[in-house]
Known about the structure:
disordered C terminus; mainly alpha; 70% helix; 2 strands; single chain
Amino acid sequence: MAVHVAGLVAVGVFYVVILLAGILASRKSKQVEKKCSGRKSEVAIVGGRNMNIVVCIFTMTATWVGGGYIMGTAEAVYLPTRGLVWASGPLAYLVNFILGGLFFAKPMRSKRYVTVLDPFQHRYGRSFTTAILIPALISNIFWVACTLAGLGATMSIILDLSPILSILISAAVSIIYTVLGGLYAVAYTDIIQLSFIFVSLWLCIPFIFLSPALTDLSQTIHLNESNVHSWIGEVKLEDAGKWTDDFLVVALGGLSCQSLHQRILAAASSSKAQVSCFAAAAFAFIMGIPSVIIGATAASADWNQTEYGLPPPYERGEAGNILPLALSYITPNWVSVLGIGSVAAAVMSSMDSALLASASMFMQNIYKMTLRKQASDRELQWVTRICVLLVGLAGTGLALNRSSILALWMLATDLLYCVVTPQLVCVVHLRSANCYGAISGYTVALLLRVLSGDPALGIPPVLLYPGWREEDGVITQYFPFRTLIAFISLAVVVLVSCLVELGFNHNVIPQSWDVLDVFKKTIEAEEDEKPTPLAHEGKNLVLHTSF
């Protein structure tokens, strides 16, 4: 199969348009910097806190609708062992945005935070904030990897282009315009990318249904003999724990994602931030429907009537690439080119957000607040750019290792769900939480998660939960262990915080043991808030006590 020249030209034109849009948006960023009365370095992170609500909705939706989302959803629907009921992405994103709007948009935006780590910085200090950054950074690298891996697979199938080359080119384009324009470049390119994703994917659907290879979607037995169940799938009682775990990982893990809070904090007001979240919930759900349809039609197609032939993709181990395979072999060539454009757009719309999110957290909470408190705006801007480059290179390197796109997509929110989300709930909504409880909860969650293992990373489990199974030498946990870890972490934070506070307040624990100065700072803050008595009030008090 020769390189698809027309498709290559079309994708090249699309990349040029995105790059030019990012460069133009960088001019907008510079104009806002000139008008900004505060730190100019924050313009790249929160865009001056006056972003238009329409732009907020577009960029918030586009950030979530990435290559992992559209390809992972199609993969889940197509897989004989899963099906539609296991494609939790669209519904999970709907829940994620609604919960974000209800419980986090107002408290985060009203306090004018710059990053999602700011609440930790203000209450717990620099050391614990650095610890929280580690899982957040790893999550973003996985996110970049899963989006780039989806694009590499799509281009290699439809354009017969080397996946390594396509990954490198796409990463370079995203890194360049993110470095140049910060949040404004990311947000304005998101508008173009999301629009293209919506039009191109929905345009592919009629041609898939008109294909002669498509059989009746209502039939139970597939002609490709890869599955004896309907593409709808089923959740057996013994699998309910894993289904619940997968759903909650995506639905709740994203609540602690910097990319979400970056859009919330860039909104012009708390109410507009909430509206953006609710609107993004609906749009993200709608954007997942084409992937569901493509996965279902691929599961019901007679692949023997296509140039792909038999055995079907599942039996060849290519289920992870089902979306580009369906577009390439079930639709006309020009339609498949549109499909690859949608994947490319989805990749860049998520990748640039992950790059900027990682750079923002490191620059604001580590470099500026810890390493170089007197750093100039120009220095901070360069630190942000270098971080974007480093995270981009790390994610690109991981993407070159051929892993399941669905697995990488789940891993991207796994650590956030188990380790960071319980901490964020406590620091935002529980006044009783303190640094001792936070450290305890963090340590317990991280330890339990590592001991639970992960098949995608090749980490064997030390802790075996009820219902575990071993298939082909790989142990899979079917108990909702990640949800259990998240709740244990939450409980440990609350319990240890309360016990330590009681111990210090009732002198059960000596004040000299307060090595983190948690309660010393609290006492000093309370004393500062007390009004100072006037001179004559002090004299009256002395006279009164003399009797």
